[in-house]
Amino acid sequence: MNRVAITGNLTRDPEIKKTSSGLAVCNGSVAVNEWRKDKEDYVSYFDFTVFGSRAEAFERNHAKGDKILIEGKLKQERWEDKNTGGNRSKIVVIVDQWEFVKAKQEQNF
Q1: Which CATH homologous superfamily contains domain 4-106?
Q2: What is the mean pLDDT of residues 22-26?
Q3: CA 27, CA 30: separation in Å to the nearest integer?
């Protein structure tokens, strides 16, 4: 099973582009803080992609700093480095659903 859920903060405003066929593609990055016993923060960064009408909705409704929960599958992207000719790769989350996570002080009880 290829399924992942990540909660973190957007590191930049989501960026949307259209493919030659008109499909909307939204790319972004999430920073996830891990709190350790030694009280040092450890931050991991995860790139993500959202497609279609969901991409447009994501870009419209989110901005840098927003805390979100993204869910989807992992995909390894591979390419050849234009400068060195070497093989490169990275893991990207292909998002199929997400939630905006409000800070406690923003919630209405």
Answers
A1: Nucleic acid-binding proteins (2.40.50.140)
A2: 96
A3: 10
